[in-house]
Write a structure and sequence with these properties.
Layout (H helix, E strand, L loop, with lengths): L2 H18 L2 H4 L13 E6 L3 H15 L7 E8 L10 E5 L6 H15 L6 E7 L2 H4 L9 H14 L3 H9 L8 H6 L3 E7 L22 H10 L6 H6 L18 E7 L1 H14 L3 E12 H17 L4 E10 L10 H13 L5 E7 L15 E4 L3 H7 L4 H6 L3 H8 L2 E2 L10 E7 L2
Parallel strand pairs: 1-2, 1-4, 2-3, 4-5, 5-6, 7-8
Antiparallel strand pairs: 8-12, 9-10, 9-12, 10-11
Length: 430
């Protein structure tokens, strides 16, 4: 297979994975009937917030003919991920570092939830990215302090569960607090999972579910990664008033939670295409965690073994890898995985790969135009040498974007308006 044909095949797998998790596909069958008497309050947050709000608004207003006067709500999505709505407000906000737009959008969401009555239905449309988009700092913590802490956590190598443990104890909306605010209304959450294990307490920092983590665990995360927090954060994490509501709290008596798309669903779609191509799909897991460069070395070894055995296969994996920042370069975990994979494969013939974030952006500065990931071909290192690029130096500087940008091998689909985290495919041809 030519390099162009292999790339087209990998693109087809990535596109199928994204489509399986898009709200246009997975949301309509899960939308609950509107309330008989009160208001329908739609609160959406995350990278899929715009598309979820758009689909839900169309369903209730057009398909069901619901009274527009009884519909209220707001969506807060990452910059560049908003979608056109007719009645409901759409806000674009910072991610992964929160900003003032997210602060204002979160406060409007809080106010709407707090206004709900027993006759109302609060429908929460949740997706990955909500933790940054719904930014409502605990009393005494300023936005700049949360921004500084977020940057430190992202550079530390902490995984998403650890990061969200800290976030939930510094918020007025995360860690079950949105459900508390919405009492006595019925609360239904429809979520697209972007976390390993699909834990509702981790997706979007669990705004409508009990939080099993504690203030002490949040402090432990900062100590483990040697993060010296701003003084206001240190004070807040010692204040028992910032402990999150736990399982058994009465606030969750009228709260429902449904997963409507998971990483596993996207990999099922990709596996079908691999089989249709006459190849062997090998799912390593949809919930991998760990350092991107270490996981890449492991998968390079697996790909080499398949090649040696004469098997034509595609290694598939997802999850959320991490990058411990040691340099000053650009790039997220998918691009770093691809760069480390290329180095480990060392030009092995017949092995192509793509690694990308299903939301359309991978790390970077938070712009919607940031790349989603990168491609690896058998001649990646040869082309780099011809261009005077040292792959090891780029990896040491965490500058995977700079490396693949120079080669023209960045994956750039733009905002996909959904998010089920990483998608990696290593194609071994024999």
């Amino acid at each position: 297979m030519t390099d162009a044909a292999a790339r087209a095949f990998l693109d087809k797998l990535f596109t199928a994975a994204v489509a399986a998790a898009h709200p246009e596909t997975c949301l309509p069958p899960a939308l609950p009937p509107p309330p008989a008497q009160g208001r329908l309050i739609l609160l959406a947050a995350g990278k899929a917030a715009g598309s979820m709000l758009e689909v839900a608004e169309r369903h209730y207003l057009d398909t069901l003919g619901f009274d527009p006067a009884r519909l209220a709500g707001i969506g807060v999505a990452r910059h560049g991920y908003g979608r056109p709505t007719r009645r409901l407000e759409m806000v674009e906000a910072g991610h992964p570092v929160p900003d003032a737009a997210g602060l204002a959008g979160a406060q409007k969401s809080i106010d709407l939830a707090a206004s709900a009555t027993a006759e109302d239905l609060v429908l929460v449309l949740l997706s990955g990215g909500a933790s940054a988009n719904w930014i409502a700092p605990a009393i005494g913590v300023e936005l700049d302090d949360k921004r500084a802490l977020t940057r430190a956590l992202l550079r530390s190598g902490a995984n998403i569960t650890e990061i969200n443990t800290v976030r939930k104890h510094l918020s007025r909306i995360k860690g079950g607090r949105l459900a508390v605010l919405a009492q006595p209304a019925r609360v239904v959450t429809l979520a697209i999972s972007d976390v390993p294990g699909d834990d509702p307490a981790v997706i979007g920092s669990g705004p409508t579910v009990p939080d099993p983590s504690s203030l002490a665990e949040a402090r432990d995360v900062l100590a483990r990664y040697r993060i010296d927090p701003p003084p206001s954060v240190a004070v807040a994490l010692r204040d028992s008033a910032n402990e999150s509501p736990k399982p058994g709290d009465a606030a969750f008596a009228h709260a429902e939670y449904h997963l409507i798309a998971r990483p596993a669903d996207s990999f099922l779609a990709a596996e079908r295409l691999v089989r249709e191509a006459g190849l062997e799909p090998i799912l390593i897991g949809d919930n991998l965690e760990g350092e991107a460069r270490e996981v890449a070395a492991e998968q390079a070894a697996l790909a080499r073994a398949l090649k040696a055995d004469g098997r034509s296969a595609v290694l598939l994996s997802g999850g959320e890898l991490t990058v411990t920042m040691r340099g000053q370069g650009r790039g997220g975990p998918n691009q770093e995985f691809a760069l480390a994979l290329a180095i480990a494969l060392d030009g092995a013939l017949g092995i192509h790969a793509v690694a990308g974030d299903t939301d359309g952006t991978d790390g970077g500065g938070g712009d919607a135009s940031d790349p989603a990931g990168a491609y690896v071909t058998p001649d990646t290192l040869a082309r780099a040498a011809a261009a005077g690029l040292d792959p090891a130096a780029f990896l040491a500087n965490n500058d995977s974007t700079g490396f693949f940008e120079a080669l023209g091998d960045l994956l750039t689909p733009g905002p996909t308006c959904t998010n089920v985290n990483d998608f990696r495919a290593v194609f071994v041809e024999n």
